[in-house]
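WARN retry 2 of 3 for item q-0093 after timeout on previous attempt; input resubmitted unchanged.
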Amino acid sequence: MNIVNFAHNLRMGDDGVWICSDFKNVSYPEDGHARNFLIEDKSFWFRHRNECILAAVKKFHPTGGILDVGGGNGFVTRRLLDEGFDCALLEPGIVGALNAKRIRGIPQVICSNLESAQFEYGRLGAIGMFDVIEHIPDDSSTIDKVYNLLHKNGFFYCTVPMHPWLWSQHDVSAGHFRRYTRSGL
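OK item q-0093 returned
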């Protein structure tokens, strides 16, 4: 399934990445994708998180493709593709989008944020936001938008940083607006 067919504000760039020229900036460090790319494959945390995500997706198998929103360098998307899931990556940072396309070999990469890409409501089978919503000032509105984009039996998968008492300078430098509690999420 070509997830890009459900978006209306994209054009193909010369590098094979779908782009949206009028998207809003996000709260994420400018060098974040380059730094993460150096450690993702070797990091216990990134590998373990991928195993947890994969277990959830296998347990709650989507009907249709998965749009990995804010998917960075494509570490999660690549794993889902390797496990046989139809998956596309949406990443507003050009460095992450290009790493996903060129180095990780993700076929469908979109350089945009979710709102600007203008996906059709009710068309997506699943959306993943893995350590993303804490970077969004109004997370509730974004989750409402995700809900509207999913078809009737669609799934929303997400991971977030937990425990507000763990808030630190790392959260500030990472561009986080919050940490979550189970009930708050």
